[in-house]
Amino acid sequence: MGFATDAIHAGQEPDPSTGAVAVPIYQSSTYVQEELGKHKGYEYSRTGNPTRAALERNMAVLEGGKAALAFASGMAATNAVMTLLKSGDHVVCSEGAYGGTPRLFNSILKNFGLDFTYVDTTNPANLINAIQPNTRMVFVESPTNPLMKITDLSAISAITRSRGLSLVVDNTFLSPFFQKPISLGADIVVHSTTKYLNGHSDGVGGVAVLAQEEDAARLKFIQNAAGAILGPFDSWLVLRGIKTLAVRMKQHETNAIAIAKYLVGQPKVKKVNYPGLEDHPQHALASRQMTGFGGMMSFDTGSLENARRFLNRVKLCSLGESLGGVETLICHPATMTHAYFSEEERQRLGISQGLVRLSVGIEDADDIVTDLEMGLSAIPG
Ligand SMILES: *Cc1c(COP(=O)(O)O)cnc(C)c1O
């Protein structure tokens, strides 16, 4: 089946007892057992819930994995995946990953004996140099946030495969509609479903998709044992969101291309970071590895003062963290998503004070452009 068909149908057969087309919200903590040791596959909703199970089957199909497990947030999914490791293990992580990821690694998991090295994975040689005898896992995010740098996932997985390391890819920025990391050699894919998968900015959730049966069994054990599950109502919201993922992603991209082209032509905009632009340093790689360029971009207004003027003037573009919703969201990485980093570290990463990140929504592109035009008019020429 094609992607759009799977998005709507995989794991979501009409309810056998009523014929309901939409998967019901099984808001139940427990399940009556017919007799001792005999039940219908569900015992207790931390262990398994039919609504969550439908989402998990759906995501396994969309990412091409053996199984998927849904968690209370994207960070809960990443945290659960990291507990596949044990004290003394070393992880190499993409520099420029979502800010919450190094925060979890450095401020919490380090205390439990895991060790982390951050490298620019856009150059695979940096990964090779960072591998230690105790390295067990490589955690990659592509494209990176907010500079939209692309890591060659096939080149990275060739390295991890040959050394027996597990490759985890955070695919939140593109969704499986535009990128399928497992087909490029990843072992585990994580998502914040809060973003494109749910797509409507009305729920927080996460999912991990496993390519290997052993990882799937172990993570299922961890999900039940540690318990950071996604609730039935939130699972239902994500399932509902995914039904329109294909049409939404196409429109996000169409709008993003139009807006990137508009911004490139503006003298007050210093630089536009969007992989769909031909002058993006990894445009060729992006075209090869992704089936579309997505709806995320960032651009430089030149200074903190200019960014402030711009952000205070726009109206339709809502100032806020998060991304991937139907509405256009705009944010200032230096003071919002990347406030956790020191100014020195931000400069090293290339996150300037004037940088603005845009999650292009699916409103009429003309209206978004008009709003950006208003914002730019607040910057002295
Ligand atoms: C938002 C986000 C996360 C964290 O997900 P939550 O659902 O907020 O916990 C992880 N990775 C990326 C790329 C994100 O954008």
List the helices and strands and how they pair.
Blueprint: H1 3-9, H2 50-63, E1 67-71, H3 74-82, E2 90-94, H4 100-107, E3 115-119, H5 124-130, E4 135-141, H6 153-163, E5 166-170, H7 175-178, E6 188-192, E7 206-210, H8 213-226, H9 232-242, H10 245-264, E8 271-273, H11 283-289, E9 296-300, H12 304-313, E10 318-319, E11 329-331, H13 343-349, E12 355-359, H14 365-377
Parallel strand pairs: 2-3, 2-4, 4-5, 5-6, 10-11
Antiparallel strand pairs: 1-7, 6-7, 8-9, 9-12, 11-12
The structure holds pyridoxal-5'-phosphate.
The site of pyridoxal-5'-phosphate has 15 residues, from helix 3.
Mind explaining what this structure looks like?
This protein is of the alpha/beta class and 381 residues long. It folds into 2 domains: 3-242, 3-Layer(aba) Sandwich (Aspartate Aminotransferase, domain 2), CATH 3.40.640; 246-376, Aspartate Aminotransferase, domain 1. Helices cover 37% and strands 14% of the residues. It is built from 14 helices and 12 strands. The protein has helices at 3-9, 50-63, 74-82, 100-107, 124-130, 153-163, 175-178, 213-226, 232-242, 245-264, 283-289, 304-313, 343-349, 365-377, and strands at residues 67-71, 90-94, 115-119, 135-141, 166-170, 188-192, 206-210, 271-273, 296-300, 318-319, 329-331, 355-359. Strands 1-7-6-5-4-2-3 form a 7-stranded mixed beta sheet, with helices on both faces. Strands 8-9-12-11-10 form a 5-stranded mixed beta sheet. The longest helix has 20 residues, at 245-264. The structure holds pyridoxal-5'-phosphate (PLP). Pyridoxal-5'-phosphate binds next to α3.
